Backbone:
């Protein structure tokens, strides 16, 4: 059964270009993976992935467990390098420059990451958010740091809940609050791109809704790439969606097209819940 | 003959008897094992209790023939030797542990672990004689300094391994969080990983200290002993374990009692350090699991 309501424009577009990578929205390209191949030892985990992330848009990566979507996400700020015995070939361009050839810490400062499980440091709420400033030799007095901490917590929709206990341990927060704290911590260094690796998989629906709302608000200042298991979430929050299967990018298009009128049968089977 | 007929099936009374016997024998041996600590403590108090007084902690040893006196010099001497040993052994062991956990490859780690375990197994008297050859002999005299080096070497392997273990217990996700914020690896280690493991590392250090506090053999070769105060770090010094040895083999009744008392004090101190460290460890999980 083919889902109804396909947008004629996307139909047309595919007809004319025949390119999976086409986009309707004319935002400039921010981050671009080109021909990425990734190996864990001898295991070939990513096969020739090419994908463009548009500025100030939310790009969702979906697919069944083990399809390589998290692995791909981790290459985008070179977190894959923390795992030994891996190999990456291809290019990842951030504003046209290959991040694989730049200083790794500078890359990660520009491309922030929020992980699947909230991982606050065993420090106070304030110190958690200020950490990125401290390790990057932030020039500015205490007042400036306080300002950044407050601004970041506001952006992460956590300020109201923690403003009276900034100097208490981060472990006193609930799971959802801890995850928003991790988002605030990532935002404090003002990343140009924010990567989120299944940020809501351990959260209840209310906490999830809060994070989805704040992602929507963050779009205006940063580019977001989110890996999610939850197809409804991808459909709700993202502008573009990529579908991964067995280490390959099967289809990449606007979220509307992927969910309403996908080109590939694998994508359709997955988004309609026939497998996965 | 069918297999079934070869299986002996003892009567249920025999089975019960064997069962109860096993229960009794294993239970008794467990009791003995656990009870020995309390037996030792009691025995030390029984034999040395009379010499345990305030003066034991404040006075110098009395000359032969005089009753009383204390071991204040040995208490201070032990404290100095242990301080020196900690200053020598812990930085080396700690940094070695950091290397092992954070930097080394699996193959190098295996070699280092193996070698530190071997060093841990070197008999303490061998370490004593080596330090005698390397420090005491060239310097021409026994000293607090030499004793500290000997015990310091003995502290290294446990310090390496306990530091390594507590650092490895820090979740990888914390390291990733710091790296993802642009922190270089060394800053991640210094500002996140080590602080998260600090309580465990300090507890491990205390256990390490408790372990070498009772070492006697290496001290006989290095710190020797002294009937008087030992000013500075460069002279022979009395230490509790060496004092116990000297007093216990002496022919004097009163010295024997003092040796028992010193044994009790030493054991009590070691137990105290041990219990404090273990309490700190059990309370010391810095990061909620999962």
Residues:
């Amino acid at each position: 059964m083919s889902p109804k309501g396909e947008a004629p424009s996307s139909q047309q577009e595919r007809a004319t270009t025949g390119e999976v990578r086409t986009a309707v929205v004319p935002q400039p390209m921010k981050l671009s993976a080109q021909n990425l191949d990734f190996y864990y030892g001898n295991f070939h985990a990513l096969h020739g992935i090419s994908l463009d992330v548009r500025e100030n848009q939310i790009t969702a990566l979906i697919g069944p467990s083990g399809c390589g979507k998290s692995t791909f996400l981790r290459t985008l700020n070179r977190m894959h390098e923390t795992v030994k015995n891996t190999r990456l070939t291809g290019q990842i361009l951030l504003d046209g420059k290959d991040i694989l050839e730049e200083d790794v810490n500078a890359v990660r400062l520009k491309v922030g990451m929020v992980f699947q499980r909230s991982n606050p440091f065993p420090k106070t709420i304030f110190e958690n958010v200020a950490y990125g400033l401290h390790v990057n030799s932030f020039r500015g007095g205490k007042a400036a740091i306080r300002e950044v901490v407050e601004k970041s917590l506001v952006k992460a929709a956590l300020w109201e809940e923690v403003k009276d206990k900034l100097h208490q341990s981060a472990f006193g927060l609930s799971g959802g609050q801890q995850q928003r704290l991790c988002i605030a911590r990532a935002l404090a260094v003002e990343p140009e791109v924010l990567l989120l690796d299944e940020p809501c998989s351990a959260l209840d629906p209310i906490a999830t809704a809060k994070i989805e709302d704040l992602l929507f608000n963050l779009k205006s200042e940063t580019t977001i790439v989110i890996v999610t298991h939850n197809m409804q979430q991808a459909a709700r929050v993202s502008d573009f969606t990529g579908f991964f299967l067995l280490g390959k990018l099967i289809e990449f298009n606007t979220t509307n097209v992927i969910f309403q009128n996908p080109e590939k049968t694998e994508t359709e089977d997955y988004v309609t819940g026939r497998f996965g | 003959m069918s297999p079934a007929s070869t299986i002996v099936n003892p009567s249920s009374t025999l089975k019960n008897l064997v069962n109860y016997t096993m229960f009794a024998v294993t239970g008794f041996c467990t009791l003995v094992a656990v009870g020995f600590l309390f037996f030792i403590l009691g025995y030390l108090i029984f034999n040395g209790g009379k010499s345990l007084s305030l003066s034991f902690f404040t006075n110098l040893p009395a000359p032969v023939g005089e009753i009383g006196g204390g071991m204040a010099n040995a208490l201070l001497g032990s404290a100095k030797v242990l301080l020196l040993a900690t200053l020598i052994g812990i930085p080396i062991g700690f940094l070695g542990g950091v290397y092992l956990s954070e930097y080394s490859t699996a193959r190098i780690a295996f070699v280092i672990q193996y070698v530190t375990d071997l060093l841990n197994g070197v008999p303490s008297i061998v370490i004593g004689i080596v330090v005698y050859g390397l420090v005491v002999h060239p310097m021409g005299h026994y000293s607090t300094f030499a004793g500290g080096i000997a015990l310091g070497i003995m502290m290294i392997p446990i310090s390496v391994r306990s530091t390594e273990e507590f650092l490895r217990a820090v979740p990888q996700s914390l390291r990733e969080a710091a790296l993802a914020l642009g922190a270089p690896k060394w800053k991640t280690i210094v500002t996140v990983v080590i602080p998260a493991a600090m309580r465990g590392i300090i507890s491990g250090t205390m256990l390490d200290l408790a372990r070498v506090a009772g070492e006697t053999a290496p001290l006989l070769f290095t710190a020797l002993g002294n009937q008087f105060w030992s000013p500075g770090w460069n002279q022979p010094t009395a230490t509790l374990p060496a004092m116990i040895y000297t007093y216990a083999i002496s022919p004097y009744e009163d010295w024997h009692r003092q040796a028992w008392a010193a044994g009790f004090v030493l054991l009590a101190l070691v137990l105290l350090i041990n219990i404090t460290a273990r309490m700190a460890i059990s309370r010391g999980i810095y990061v909620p699991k999962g």
